[in-house]
Amino acid sequence: MEVARCFDEGDVREAVAMAVAEKTPVRIRAGGTKAGLGRPVPAEKILDVKGLAGVVLYEPDELILRARAGTPMTEIEALLAQSGQAFAFEPPDLGPLLGARAGGATLGGMVAANLSGPRRFKAGALRDQLLGVVAVSGRAETFKSGGRVMKNVTGYDLPKLMAGSYGTLAVLTELTLRVAPAPEDVATIVVGGLSDRVAIETLRDAAASSVEVSGAAHLPAAVARCSQVAAVAATKGATLVRLEGTTAALAQRVDSLVQLVKPAGLRPAINVLDAAQSQLLWREVRDVSYFSGGEAFVWRISTAPMAGPALVEAVGAEAWFYDWAGGLVWLRVPPSPRADAPLVRHVLEGLGGHATLIRADDATRAEVPVFQPQPPALDGLTRRLKSAFDPENILNPGQMRPDTHP
Fold first, then answer.
1. Do 48-181 and 185-287 have matching folds?
2. Contact between 14 and 4 (Cβ < 8 Å)
3. pLDDT tens for residues 222-232?
4. More confident call, 129 vs 263
5. C-alpha closest to that of 333 among 349, 350, 314, 320
6. Which backbone phi and psi does 158 adopt, to 5 degrees?
7. Spacing of C-alpha 108 from chain mean position
8. 383: burial class by Cβ within 10 Å (0-12, 13-18, 19+)?
9. In Å, how far from its chain's centre is CA 231?
10. What 3-state DSSP class applies to 98?
């Protein structure tokens, strides 16, 4: 397969212009860890932007970072850590889940997929922290939007539009994001042995309390056993609540939370994990490491928190766990020609929510609507946007839907 390697914005414009002139679709690649996301892209040429790397601007006092799209996330996170800072949206590393190496993700790929971790229900999504973009459209034209501060805009908010577009609208070349102070200390309360329904009720109450929860997940027994944290693996199901903040204030908040998470009439086993154990545990949750390896298919479903157990029961998944206080459900199902898609979509019609097929083989991802089907009006708008940004359907054609043209 032909590869066009780009090292600056000019290279990208030239490569896209050539693709347009030759009417040759391209698949955008940087770290390569997310090649299995979305539908397979029928392109015979790769536009490799891994060479667009490096931090352009970092002002810790202003909580601003600007970097080129091919910059490895590990490099950025190490730089932020030196100043005691981090991304509030807690970016996941889904490489191992998708059959790629860990630590290979790039900033552009993270933004293109709009990936956010366990802190998302409190801190917002990646797109909420994206301040500005520089990109090359499918017309081979560079455009810039946003800047160093968050402000209201009229018309389309292009940074938010680019987040989650999977490279189908433009090739991202440079990105500006807001960063946040990293927590001084972390603790996690582990409640053992709760049923899914009781666990989610507990998580809901904790998230709504004044103790400022930053993580709320539940691992049923079969998934909890896969944890590398002994206090979690030993439980018959682990309900997890994370607190972050200053060391001085954390002890009192932990005590308050322990009293809060004791369900009425039950005497569950409760453990408190220190910072090191907490960080290991929430990396597992963040990266969906419990489902790494194997050939099983994986669904990511957002729904009303209390709808999760009914969804799991109706679908009959082989394994599952909950994040975002029950609002995010990860399902693992056996390989099948349609990945249980008709059943999943049918169940969600009654419960409400959105389902994305995160992991499946190429043949299944080519046949099944990987992303939640859109209502007609929204689908029409999506197609018009694609036509406006990429009229020749050059960039990652078919990755989000079979036909992106009106």
1. no
2. no
3. 999 999 999 99
4. 129
5. 320
6. -60, -40
7. 13
8. middle
9. 27
10. helix
Place of tokens 């780009």: 6
Q: Which residues pair with 174 in a beta bridge?
A: 68, 134
CA separation for the pair 210, 202 (Å, rounded): 14
CA distance 367 to 257: 46
179 by Cβ neighbours in 10 Å (0-12 / 13-18 / 19+) ranks as: buried
pLDDT tops 70 at residue 267: no
Residue 405's pLDDT band, with cuts at 50, 70 and 90, is very low
Q: What is the DSSP letter of 106?
A: B
Check whether 153 has a pLDDT greater than 70: no
Q: Where exactly are the structural domains of the chain? A: 48-181, 185-287, 293-367
Tokens describing residue 28: 């955008």
Q: What single letter denotes the amino acid at residue 268?
A: P
Q: What is the DSSP string of 351-397?
A: H--EEEEEE--HHHHHHS--SPPPPHHHHHHHHHHHHHH-TT--BST
Please tell me the CATH code under which domain 293-367 is placed: 3.30.70.2740
185-287 CATH = 3.30.70.2190
Tokens for 372, please give them.
Answer: 């939640």
Tokens found for residue 380? 């029409």
3-state secondary structure of 136: strand
What's the angle, vertex CA 152, arms to CA 396 and CA 136, rounded to 5? 25
Helix (H) or strand (E) holding 277: helix 275-287
| Arch. (CATH architecture) of 48-181 | 2-Layer Sandwich (3.30)
H or E element that contains 331: strand 328-333
Both tokens of 251, joined, read: 């002890």
CB 285 within 8 A of CB 215: yes
